[in-house]
Specification:
single chain; mainly beta; Elongation Factor Tu (Ef-tu), domain 3; about 10% helix
Amino acid sequence: MKIEFTPSIGTDAVTLGDDASKFAVIVEQLGASAMAQAESLAGAGYQAVFTRGNVMGEFVFTSAKTYPDYATTFTQFLAEYSRLNQQGTLKLTEGTVILQFLNATLKGVQRIFGDANCGAHMGIRYTFTITAITSAS
């Protein structure tokens, strides 16, 4: 699996994870929900539900790799932190399947601590807000 992010303004695509290059990816959450409006109707036994067509969700994943030294992990985290609030296209490639998340917004980055992520090995948990998904294969 490979995950790339291309901000809408100013910069080229950046690889956030790539299993093929030992930049291991674990997808935690990928989904969305639609907005529905429920209204009480006079004399009705049940509420009426109307779809509003707005779809939004989250794509949450963790990627981890080993860096040259411990200090570099902090430099890399600072680079990822600076991407917060950026919008762009997020691309997930799994084999021959490609999912593109248009207008994705990076809303969270967390450095993962713990026994498995110590020394020069670091994991970063990304949370993107997603709306439209297109696929290409």
